[in-house]
Write a structure and sequence with these properties.
about 55% helix; Alpha-Beta Plaits; 2 domains; rod-shaped; alpha+beta; 5 helices; 4-stranded antiparallel β-sheet
């Protein structure tokens, strides 16, 4: 068969044809295949960067909200109120006052429990346990507002734990009573 091809195509033309085919193959292997590999890597990088951009666009509103809260000017001083002791009939009144502070600060009341035994252990004082849920920044404002209660002596304990989509905060406060 080689003799037949050699008879039809002169040897010099056959050599030139083989050289052209070899040149085309070398061109493909040296330029086109590496360019395709580089293009595939660039496509992969573009997809990764697009994914990062999408995640950042999703998180942008959260970041802006947190930035506003972080840069919001908070009160530099605690509210100063004249201290007064609770009279025995003011217990219902103090409960209502605490509930209004909780609502004003966009928190949800879970529990408000006066500890009657605390009055026996520390006469003249009453321990109240509060449990609320909500945003931590609102809880901070609530704690500042607690200082506006005239009979408030001090906060004994604060416990914060994460719950689904929120936080649960527990506070023990001491009130002065007659």
């Amino acid at each position: 068969m080689m003799k037949r091809i050699a008879e039809i195509i002169p040897a010099q033309s056959l050599i030139l044809l083989l050289l052209c085919v070899a040149g085309i193959l070398v061109f493909i292997f040296l330029f086109i295949l590496p360019a395709q590999k580089t293009a595939a890597e660039l496509d992969k990088n573009i997809e990764e960067k697009q994914g990062q951009i999408d995640r950042q666009q999703i998180l942008k509103p959260v970041f802006e909200r947190m930035l506003v809260k972080a840069t919001a000017k908070s009160p530099t001083r605690l509210p100063m109120v004249e201290k007064a002791k609770l009279s025995p009939g003011d217990m219902k009144k103090i409960s209502t006052q605490i509930q209004s502070l909780i609502k004003r600060n966009n928190l949800q009341l879970k529990e408000i429990t006066p500890d009657v035994n605390s009055s026996k252990e520390r006469p003249g004082y009453l321990l109240i346990r509060l449990a609320v849920t909500g945003d931590f920044f609102n809880f901070r404002k609530f704690l500042l507002d607690l200082g506006s209660i005239p009979s408030m002596v001090h906060v004994q304990e604060i416990t914060i734990r994460s719950i689904e989509e929120s936080r649960e905060m527990k506070v023990k406060i001491w009130l002065a009573q007659e």
